[in-house]
Amino acid sequence: MTEHIESAFNPDDLAAEAKKFRETFAQARTEIARVMVGQTEVVEAVLTALFGGGNVLLEGVPGLGKTELIKALSKTLDLEFRRIQFTPDLMPADIIGTTVMTADERGRYQFEFKKGPIFTQLLLADEINRASPKTQSALLETMQEGSVTTGGTIHILTQPFFVMATQNPLEQEGTYPLPEAQLDRFLFKVNVPFPNREDLNEIVQRTILRTPVEPNRVLNAERIMQLRTVLNKVVVADAIRDYAVRLVLATHPHSDFSTEQVRKFVKWGASPRAAQTLLKAARVRALAEGRAHVAHEDIRHFAVNTLQHRVLLNYDGQAEEISVADIIRAIVNELPEESRAPVAKAVLATT
């Protein structure tokens, strides 16, 4: 049985909206590609997260163009951009702002909130794992609610608001692992690969010649928010939704759908937010492909990016340096698209 679309959603209108979404998504991707050499999958994931209203954690060694990516994103989408360099001595007030005492024209003193760099639309949290957990937690409310609470006052950030955080997988000394609560607030974790020979030659040539490449603006904040409203209209069949749910349940060692590798190496699987994220990303991808319905392939496409940072390895998994991404890929390969088991049985064991 398929999820019904409200009568206000005309199929022809929805198909036209899907076509416009595909064209706009392709234009944005093309403009960013003019600046970014290679990294097509990274660009696609970042754009998908932004259109889906989520945040992205990029993991990669320095010099791969992560800062250039968000700068290109800012120019292409005509959004305000700020960068915060996370360091061990960074404090929460350095991010969200602080309340100071000021005097008006008559000499009367009053408290005034001075906004921090988090009050922007595109925020680059560079090397986020170098800051203390206390400072990292300053982003929790903002990433989830799009607001900042200080002194009992709630400040709403301008939408769209998007956090792109980076971390270096090689340098562990002087870093603080991101807590699970914060990792769960990233829609995607994307591993940025090292460029191949052809791409590296192109990067070096551009650097030596210093040929400026400026992307053209193809969107603005208002248009992005309009495009986000189309997501809720994309049809998700019951079987597709259940496939996403089973995919998440398969990451839990005591689930009916877990693989032998999961039962052996995983301590705890992905959260319920992961299932929501899978469907949200799948809807964006369906529209980017010009479709008004979600297919199984849309769920599988971003499974690794969605789940890898939400799965915790047990002691054996850590000792043997098991790759969580490989575990997710194995689940995707083994999990059947259709399930003969009743939905009522698709629950986690309590023991």
What do you see in this structure?
This protein is α/β, with parallel strands linked by helices. It folds into 2 domains: 28-231, Rossmann fold; 234-351, Orthogonal Bundle (Helicase, Ruva Protein, domain 3). Helices cover 43% and strands 15% of the residues. The protein has a 5-stranded parallel β-sheet with strand order 2-5-8-1-9. β3 and β4 form a beta hairpin. α10 (238-249) crosses α12 (272-288). The longest helix is centred in the first third of the chain and has 23 residues, at 11-33. The protein is globular, with a radius of gyration of 22 Å. The two termini are 33 Å apart. Residues 1-7 and 344-351 have low confidence and may be disordered.
Share of helix, binned:
40-55%
Q: Please mark out the parts with pLDDT under 50 across 5 or more consecutive residues, or reply none.
A: 1-7, 344-351
What CATH architecture label of the largest domain applies?
3-Layer(aba) Sandwich
Number of helices: 16
- The CATH superfamily of the largest domain appears as P-loop containing nucleotide triphosphate hydrolases
The pLDDT mean sits at 85
The overall number of domains is: 2
What is the CATH topology assignment of the largest domain? Answer: Rossmann fold
* Helix/sheet category: alpha/beta
How much of the sequence is in beta strands? 5-15%
What is the string of helix and strand elements? Answer: HHEHEHEEEHHEEEHEHHHHEHHHEHH
Shape: globular
* Strands, count: 11
* Biggest sheet overview: 5 strands, parallel
Q: Give the radius of gyration.
A: 22 Å
Highest-level CATH class of the largest domain: Alpha Beta
Straight-line N-to-C gap: 33 Å
Instruction: Please state how the strands of the largest beta sheet are arranged side by side.
Output: 2-5-8-1-9
